[in-house]
Structure formats: structure tokens, C-alpha cells
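REQUEST FORM: STRUCTURE PREDICTION
Request ID: SP-0412
Submitted by: Lab K.M.
Chain count: 1
Length (residues): 257
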Amino acid sequence: MKKLSSIYLAFVFLILYLPIFYLIGYAFNAGNDMNRFTGFGFSHFENLFGDNRLMLILVQTFFLAFLSALIATIIGTFGAIYIYQAKKKYQEAFLSINNVLMVAPDVMVGASFLILFTNMKFQLGFISVLASHVAFSIPIVVLMILPRLKEMNGDMIKAAYDLGASQLQMLKEIMLPYLTPAIIAGYFMAFTYSLDDFAVTFFVTGNGFSTLSVEIYSRARQGISLEINALSALVFLFSILLVIGYYFISREKEETV
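STATUS: Completed
RESULT:
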């Protein structure tokens, strides 16, 4: 049974990762298309780094993801604490409101933000994309932190208050250190969602700002060059490093709590 489970798991991972490695493999193709592998080379990586527009969009995309995840994590953390401390009859209502953006179709969410910004006469660009990314990332952070809060021993909080701690001191010394692993997980999830989002971003991006997903979509309509394969290889490598970093950070925090 164990051997069968291992085979099944290997098959699942093969299906998941084979298309990715197929895409990355052609980033090292000396030819200019994916019809045939003609030889090994780094010309597409050279073209990628020579494409100033694409490199600028790459930086913009990662900066947007880092910033939106940071803001969403701060808001989502205190939002989760508020929901946790609310009366039982209000918790379900707050959770339902929080989950609207999670279950709503991305196209509908993007169109809603577009209508909102248009009616407000707000110029579409970095700020509009940032605001929308923060909005759909907050529910993710809340859902990552709430289970950790519910596992927390309430006697720790009561003991802190009995010893004369203020609410700020309790948050700083007891609750936030305990929530740190969940906060880190929420941040990385929000970062991933922001980095990966296309549907919402497509609606709210302006002429002066773009992200990788929107740019790749625009170029795909003209035929994707192998520069995109090279870019995919770099982003995939960064993702692996991010996951490894998250693993060690979360494990260290778990050991210190």
C-alpha cells in the first residue's frame, strides 16, 4: 500500500511539474521556437536582460507583490484578532464578509474595482492595482491567522492581564509572537496571490503601469518568444528559493514560540 501511494504521489508531481520543466527547458534552446531543440545556449537569457521594458515590469511586479502583501498582512492580522475577539454571533457575519472576495469570480472582482475607480475619477495605475491587490489579499491573511488564534490558550492572555499588562503589551509580548508563524504564512500566501494575479490586475492597470501576467498576455497574442521561457525559469528559481526561505523561517519561529 505504501509503495502504491508513493507511485501515485510521484505521478501527481510528474503531471504538475513536467509542463513547467518543459517550458524552462526551451529557455536554453539555441533556436528561436519550441518546435525543436536545436542546441544548448543562453541567448534568450541575454535577450531577456537586454529587454529594458520587461526587466522594469519584472521589478514593478515584485515590488507590488512585496508591498501589497505587507499592507494586507498588517490589516489582515489585526482584522483576524478583531474577529477572534468579537462575540460569537458576530463572528460568522464577519467571516462571511471576509470570504466574499475569496469565493467571488476574479472577473467580477476586477470589474467591480474598475467601476469603483472609474466612478471615483481615480486614475488607473500603480495605486489602483496596489489597492485591489491589498483588498483581495486581506481575506487570505485572515484565513491563515484565525486557525492559529483559535488554537491559542486563552489563559495566557488572562494571565498577562492579571499581571497588569496593557492591551498593547499583551499584543506585543504574548499574542503577536505566538501568531508569528501564521503571520509569515499569510504574508507568503498574499505575496504569491499578488504575483500570480491576472484577472483583477487586467481590469485596473493603467497605461503607465503593467505586471508580468498582463505583459505576458499581451505578448502572447503576438506569439510568445523564448524570452518568456527564460523569464519563467528565473521566476521559478526565485519561487523555489522563496519556499526554502519560508520553510526555514517558519521552522525557526515555531521552535522559539
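NOTES: Residues 48 and 213 are 16 Å apart (CA to CA).
Reviewed by: T.R.
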